[in-house]
Amino acid sequence: MTSDQTSRTGVVIVGSVTADVTTFSQRLPARGETILGDQFTLLLGGKGANQAVSAGLAGARTSFVGCVGDDLFHDLIVDGLSAAGVDLTHLRTVPGPTGIAHIRVDASAQNDIVMVPLANAQLSPEQIDAALEALAPTTSVLLTQLETPASLTLHITSRARAHGMTVVLDPAPAAPLDAEVWRNIDIVTPNETEASLLSGIEVTDAASAERAGQWFLAQGVGSAVITMAEKGSCVVTAEGTTFIDPIPVSPVDTTAAGDAYAGYLGAALAEGWTLAEATRLASAAGAIAVTRQGASPSLPRRDEVDALLAQNPR
After folding, report:
1. What residues have CB less than 8 Å from 255, skipping those under 6 apart?
2. I need a surface site. Which of 44, 56, 151, 278 has the fewest CB within 10 A?
3. C-alpha distance from residue 64 to each of 79, 93, 213, 230 (Å)
4. Nearest 5 degrees, angle CA 199-CA 205-CA 207?
5. Residues carrying an active site annotation
6. Residues 271, 272, 274, CA angle at the centre, nearest 5°?
7. What residues are paired with 91 via a beta bridge?
8. CB-based contacts of 94: which residues, under 8 Å, 6+ apart?
9. pLDDT at 2 exceeding the cut of 50
């Protein structure tokens, strides 16, 4: 590495933060039906916050840019991020309620989620500009998602690109993007559902994942990583396609598995790993996350991820 690369080992996440209200039941209710559940949790969540916690647990110098309300959930958010070593200099407290996610999980570990942005809607271009300007000398990777205001996605990615950061977009929840946004993205990481919605190519196997990945490259994205849960990951670059085998586990709750993946991917890239190697580390993190309940509590420590990789050599 050059001296500049050596000093720029940080990861910055610009994204959402929520208080996650999660219920667990044997099955999800049908429309209009009430059922009895088995368990309830109230925890730190939000795709942005989860990815920040994941990157912090991976060992990266991690900063978070977002907004939290001044309500009773404020301390839940701050304490959860701080416990993972995340720098909160650029987390802004705004008047009003913190974002909320209502998550329902069934016995097969499948879930559905309603996310209400609330404080997240107050993220501003000025806040983003000040944070990226301050972090640029020490930060090489930016992670962002689509739970922040849609009008800011182009601004976030273009400013990060201007500062020479590697821009990683987790396009969730999937939504159409301005064509210019794609040209700012170095790595896009959709799961098969998101890849299908965005590309128009139904992703069901390795071959269709590769075609979807090539669609993203045609839009101007540098590389595409299509995650397919128990089918593994498909890494599509201009040089070719690599398939990353899954690590077999018994799922309990898939909530935040993609965030575990994203945070570890960003941390590994900031360490200087190749995309293929970083993807394997990220896959191990995601595999551990699905074996645990909840969002932020499911995110693994680096020693756990390294141990799982050692137990599952290629």
Report:
1. 20, 22, 103, 105, 111, 113, 294, 295, 298
2. 151
3. 13, 13, 28, 30
4. 70
5. 259
6. 125
7. 66
8. 67, 68, 69, 70, 119, 122
9. no
Q: Is 79 helix (H, G, I), strand (E, B) or coil?
A: helix
Reported as a single tens digit per residue, the pLDDT across 129-165 is 999 999 999 999 999 999 999 889 999 999 999 999 9
Of 197, 215, 195, 218, nearest to 205 by C-alpha is 195
Report in angstroms the alpha-carbon separations of 217 from 186, 210, 257.
Answer: 10, 11, 25
pLDDT tens per residue across span 222-241 = 999 999 988 899 999 999 99
Q: Are strands 61-69 and 99-105 parallel, antiparallel or unpaired?
A: unpaired
Q: What is the DSSP letter of 230?
A: G
Q: Supply 148's token pair.
A: 């922040």
Closest CA to 186 of 267, 280, 266: 266
| Contacts (Cβ under 8 Å, ≥6 apart) of 289 | 256, 257, 259, 260, 261, 298, 299, 300
Q: At what angle do helices 302-311 and 275-289 cross, to 10 degrees?
A: 100
Task: Write out the two tokens for 39.
Answer: 């368990």
Predicted local confidence at residue 3, as pLDDT: 43
To the nearest 10 degrees (0 to 180), the angle between helices 153-162 and 125-135 is 20
Q: Which residues pair with 21 in a beta bridge?
A: 42, 102
Task: Give the tokens for residue 295.
Answer: 């969002």
- Token readout for 101 is 């996610």
Distance of CA 107 to the CA centre of its chain: 24
Residue type (1 letter), 75: D
